[in-house]
Structure formats: C-alpha cells, structure tokens
Amino acid sequence: MDFEEKTISSATIFDGRIVRLRVDDVSLPDGGQSKREIVEHPGAVAILALDEENNIWMVSQYRKAVEQVLLEIPAGTLEEKEHPLECAKRELAEETGLIAEEWQEIITYYCAPGFCDEKTFIYIARNLKKESSLSPDRDEFIEVSKIPLETAYQQILDGHIIDGKSIIAVQYAVYNYLGK
Amino acid sequence: MDFEEKTISSATIFDGRIVRLRVDDVSLPDGGQSKREIVEHPGAVAILALDEENNIWMVSQYRKAVEQVLLEIPAGTLEEKEHPLECAKRELAEETGLIAEEWQEIITYYCAPGFCDEKTFIYIARNLKKESSLSPDRDEFIEVSKIPLETAYQQILDGHIIDGKSIIAVQYAVYNYLGK
Fold first, then answer.
1. Mean pLDDT, to the nearest integer, of A83-103?
2. Between vectors from CA A171 to CA A168 and to CA A173, what angle results, nearest 5°?
3. Domain extents for chain B?
4. What is the per-residue pLDDT for A118?
5. Which A-chain residues 20-39 have CB contacts (< 8 A) with chain B?
6. N or C end of chain B: which has fewer CB within 10 A?
C-alpha cells in the first residue's frame, strides 16, 4: 500500500531564528484530505564525549521550553550548509573546550517525526584533549560536568536525565562500551 | 548559578490542532535579553508491546514532516486531560488491536527540549491479548508488523529504525529483557 500523502497546498505560518512552521493540506491514501502542522528545524548534533576512564561530559542548561535546567550531553543546531561532523566538533569545543581525535557517528534519528523534521546526528568523541576555552553562544549559559557513564545510565533509569538525545547516546555507549 | 530565564513577554503565533507556537522575550542570567521560539505540544505516549517470545509490535506510517514511511512502536498524542496510561492503552488498541494485562512506565523524556515542551511517556506492555479490531484515526494509515526485539535492535544499529521514541524503548528493552 502506498502511504504517501501528497501536498495539495502549503502555508508558511512562521519563519523564525530556529524553527519554521507551515501547515500543509494533504491528500490521503484513500483520497481523503487532511492538514499537517509541520515544524521545520535545521537539524542538530549531539556528542557523547567519552574518556579513557569511561567518564562523559554533560552540560546543565536552562531550557525555556520546559522551564527547567536539564542535564544533557553537548549538542547544538546545524548552521546553514554546515556538515554535521564539523558542527559536532564546533559545539563540543564551544561547550566543553574539548578537542577529540576520534569521532564516530553512532545514531542518526528523528526526534519527533509526527510533526517535526528535525534530524539529530549523534557522535561519540574519544581521545579527548582540553584545548580551547569555552565560548558558548551569547544567550547560552551552561555548567559543564564530567560523570561516569555508568552514573549517567543510572540517572536515566531514575528519571534525572530526561533529554531524548542524551538517553539514546548514553544507552548506546553503556551497552557498547561497558558491555552491559 | 541561577540559570532561569524569566519571561518578559510572550506572543502566540499559531494555535493549531496538534501544536501551538509562541515566541517569548526572556531576560538572561546576565541581565541580557533574548527571544525563545517555543513549540507547545500536548505530550505523547509510546508503547513497546513485548510478547513471551520477545517479539514487539511495530507500525509503519507515513510521516509528512519527514516525507517518508517510518517504522515505529505504537504511539499517540495525549488528548485533553487524558492520563498517559489510559492514552497508551487506547493507542495500543487502536493501532494494533492488542490489550495488555501488564503495564510498566519505563522512561519519560523530552524529545526536543531546546524548542519544544513535548513530554513522551514510554510504556512496556506485556501479557498481550488480541481483542479489539483496529481503529486508527481517520487520517492515519498504518501497517502493523511483529518482529523480534533483537531484530529491531539491529535495525537501530543499521539505520532502518530512525524514530527517537522507538530507539529509546528498544534500547531499554533489549538491555533489560534480553540481558545484553
């Protein structure tokens, strides 16, 4: 069966700094019609920076959308025409001051495909060196910490880490690096 | 350090069927100001329906936002004042026709806290019985399949399953039920 929904018309509602919102009128497989509210996002990267002792770097950051400080792995939004790996290297340096010699793309996924086109590229960064000084965006206030990967995993299970990309990356790393 | 961003003013841009978009002017910890584009979403549930042979139910569904058919675990959006567990039971029945006797909430997370307040509640459903007939929403066309949990995990690693909630749930289940 062909599930495709063909676009009849599309209306841009908002074109912002981070997101763009549009509403599409679509034709359904059975010939019916519906509306799809779609949030466009440039895409993002997230980095699990893992050292030789299986510690990872986390950043605490206030997230206005959820009105709380979340503990997350370093991450950021793709700039125009920026390659995800270059973005990952830039964000890791900006948020933690770390340079990594070894990069591995582990999982690429859609965070909310029901209404949003944001694609997130998750990398594991190893052979870490402290080099650059922090240079977060001017409207970004973060606190960096280093914790054992195992501790981060427990913080997922006990509900302390509640950020999707961080959960995916930590679960991946625990099972692939700690051999759980 | 207090990271909180206080709202100076808030403007609603769009109030749709699924999402609501607003732009907040906020005061930053250093006294500066910035704008936050925020997508409001009612919240969602996702269900990993696991049988005695460690098979799970998946649904294939066209996702207009990403213009492709994705393989996902059953999921849905919370209706007004609906309890997540009730929503999970309803969505599982609607999308797969299954009733489960055993429900466990495993992980609750934010899929994109940088700009969206959507909270997703993931459940594992066990002791499954085929009872009701399918009754997806009128604009929802899905194909249901049953695959081994181990196969789903491999499909995450090879990039075939690229839906965030499905990745989190399958990773959790593989490590907690297959003892990987």
1. 97
2. 105
3. 6-40, 44-178
4. 98
5. 21, 23-24, 26, 28-30, 32, 34-39
6. N
